[in-house]
Amino acid sequence: MKTKLIILIVLFISIYVNAQQTLTLEDCYSLATKNYPLSKQTGLIQQKSSYEIEALSKGKLPKIDINAQATYQSEVIGLPTSLPGVQSLNKDQYRATLDLNQLVYNGGIIDANTKLKEAQTKTQQQIIEVCLYQIKTRINQYFFSVLLLQEKKALLSSKKELLTSKVKEVKSGVKFGAILPSSEQILEAEIIKINQQLTEIKFENIKLLNNLSELTFSDIDTETTLIQPVSYPNSTNITRPEIAFYDLQNQQLEFSKSVLSKSNLPKINAFGQAGYGNPGLNMLDNSFQTFYVVGLKANWNIFDWGKTKTDKKALDISKEIVTSEKETFELNNKIQLEEQGFEIKKLEQLLLSDTEIIQIREKVIKSSDAQLKNGVITSSEYLIELTNLFEAKNILKTHEVQLAAAKSNYEIIKGK
């Protein structure tokens, strides 16, 4: 019997522990990055790029065409005099050919376009990374707002518990005439007020958790406990995805210049044609014949009126624009980091004084508690000091959560 009871207790504890889910800030980041609809585009962009590169590479393969034609013409080539064995050409002519064209040399334009396509793919994927990274700021807003509500709820619950205990003491004092009856009612009214505040926190908490659930595409309810971050990386390097995006843009523009340079290089193709027709290559033989032609063909655009040079200048200006955008972003990012750094230092200083204030308030409430028991002060006066103490504790917890949020925002600004 005892063994069964122990097993039941263990199972109950296990079920209870599993029900109390915990969630960290990093978990929220990972869930959002993994499940956000935009993240699916990364793989789709890569697949699209693979098909496009495959299509480009097929430009190196031979091109084979089958052609057929039948014509009737009003005039044909004729000789001024008749020759023995030479017949005049038919006005109806027929021809079927198999044409093959093989690229021999094109200045590396296909390889250059392949590299350009790869650079474009990386740039497009980096845009996705930038958009996903910006979601972290919204996650921080909801996450730390819920943390703050958790702390407020804990403090209010503690205050309610203390007041409930104090009501019992006051009832005893009223019974023996040491305390006025109104003192009990004042404390009970304060308990009702606390219940109202807890109700507000409850619904605000549900709203924020719902927002966080929507953003992370996960089920986060009131049974989930959010864990406040306690440590942060000490790296000083700026690793924002926007920086990589600007660098990839410049690389893409460089590859575009390479494509332009190779577009004016000579192109050489080998070709061949095999056919059957009437007439064949011998125009004087008025019969169906087989024939073939093989050869090389070269093409070189040696003068394009400076179009390539102008296009390269436009690309150089585009690079300067991208560089200026990068410099602007880095400047604004530096300013944000400095502002956030000052915010962190301010909150750290405030926390030191918060602790001192609480120590003083605890001494005051201890004295007020004794005075209330002896009827020296009213419950209203006691309640003022108790509210001051819990307000000081609430400010401390608020500053702690704000400091954690400021440090997390600092990491996001820096690039986490």
Your description of this structure?
By secondary structure, this protein is of the alpha+beta class. It has one domain (18-69, 89-414): Outer membrane efflux proteins (OEP). It contains eight helices and six strands, in the order αβααββααβαββαα. It has helices spanning 2-19, 25-35, 40-57, 109-175, 181-216, 241-263, 307-373, 379-414, and strands at 22-23, 63-72, 92-105, 225-226, 267-278, 289-299. The strands form two sheets. A four-stranded antiparallel sheet has the order 2-3-5-6, with no helix packed on it. 16% of the residues are buried.
Based on the model shown, name its key terms.
416 residues, Outer membrane efflux proteins (OEP), disordered N terminus, two-stranded parallel ribbon
> Would you list the SSEs in sequence order as H and E?
HEHHEEHHEHEEHH
Number of helices: 8
Architecture (CATH level 2) name: Up-down Bundle
What do we call the CATH topology?
Outer membrane efflux proteins (OEP)
Give me the side-by-side strand order of the main sheet: 2-3-5-6
| CATH homology group | Outer membrane efflux proteins (OEP)
Q: Measure the end-to-end span.
A: 55 Å
Low-confidence stretches: 1-19
CATH class group: Mainly Alpha
Q: Total domains, how many?
A: 1
Number of strands: 6
Instruction: Label the structural class.
Output: alpha+beta
**Largest sheet composition:** 4 strands, antiparallel
Q: Could you estimate the helical fraction of the residues in percent? A: 55-70%
Give the averaged pLDDT, no decimals. Answer: 86
